[in-house]
Amino acid sequence: EVQLLESGGDLVQPGGSLRLSCAASAFTFSSYAMSWVRQAPGRGLEWVSTISGSGGSTYYADSAKGRFTISRDNSKSTLYLQINSLRVEDTAVYYCAKSVGATTIRTFDVWGQGTMVTVSS
Amino acid sequence: QSALTQPASVSGSPGQSITISCTGTSSDVGSYNYVSWYQQHPGKAPKLIIYDVSNRPSGVSNRFSGSKSGNTASLTISGLQAEDEADYYCSSFTSSSTVVFGGGTKLTVL
User: Fold this and answer.
1) Is B67 part of the contact surface with chain A (CB cutoff 8 Å)?
2) Model confidence over A12-67: pLDDT tens digits?
3) Which residue from A32, B3, B79, B84 puts its CA 20 to 30 A from A54's CA?
4) How many Å apart are CA A37 and CA A35, to the nearest integer?
5) What is the pLDDT of residue A101?
6) Number of other CB atoms surrounding residue B18 within 10 Å
7) For A63-75, what is the mean pLDDT?
8) Do A62 and B91 touch (CB under 8 A)?
9) Mean pLDDT within B14-37
10) Number of C-alpha atoms within 13 angstroms, CB side, residue A20?
11) Radius of gyration for chain A, computed over Cα atoms and rounded to the nearest angstrom
12) Do residues B81 and B29 make contact, with C-beta atoms less than 8 angstroms apart?
């Protein structure tokens, strides 16, 4: 069964940094683009970033440009999201999601269970 | 990139059909047949139920269907069942090579 397992969420003070991880299993990881989607408490879904299967192309929402860095290690079937200069408004559940192709970013067919990031002093 | 516009809530009785709209612009919904719909139950991860406007992933009930006209996409659920009560989100690829979601619609089965 295809699975995604996020980790790394924590309570962090404003201005701090965090690296989220997403371990994938049961599919050829390098063949698919991967994404991060977040959901603030009681709010809707917000696309954050996508990386192509090879890692050669990355895409970011305007809200993520400059502070967020998406990366992947295909040898470990793991996706990462580095978040710097955390803000209160970054508080959310962060979901890892698999795309339907190596370069496509438009459809997310498998989701992890999410990891909670709380930014508060 | 502004979020796609969805009604905040819709409701229907068991057995009935409901439709949820998703309105974007000529830079997203109107230009690409890359609209997806996701179902999310409370405390759970989203689940893909429609992709590329009207395609259903394997295992998704044929009670779910999607369509698009101009800048507006729609999700129709026929034969409403209690387990359909959830939040529904649309998304679209955009001309900026990004993805934009709708604000979400809460479906209540009366």
Assistant:
1) no
2) 999 999 999 999 999 999 999 999 999 999 999 999 999 999 999 999 999 999 99
3) B3
4) 7
5) 83
6) 19
7) 97
8) no
9) 96
10) 33
11) 13
12) no
B100–chain A Cβ distance below 8 A for any pair: yes
Q: Which DSSP letter does residue B18 get?
A: E
Q: CB B38 to CB A47 under 8 A?
A: no
Task: Please report the pLDDT score of residue B11 as a whole number.
Answer: 97
pLDDT in tens, B49-103: 999 999 999 999 999 999 999 999 999 999 999 999 999 999 999 999 999 999 9
Indicate whether A90 pLDDT > 80.
Answer: yes
Cα–Cα dist B28/B37, whole Å: 14
Alpha helices by DSSP H, B13-68: none
Q: Between chains, do A100 and B51 touch, taking CB under 8 Å as contact? A: yes
Chain A residues in contact with B104 (beta carbon < 8 A): 44-45
- CB contacts of A106 in chain B (<8 Å) are 32, 34, 36, 51-52, 91-93, 99
Residues in B touching A47 (Cβ below 8 Å): 91, 98-101
Residue with tokens 């998703």: B22
Asked if the model's pLDDT at residue B1 lies above 80, the reply is no
* Residues in A lying within 8 Å of B, measured between beta carbons: 35, 37, 44-47, 50, 59-62, 95, 100, 105-109, 111-114
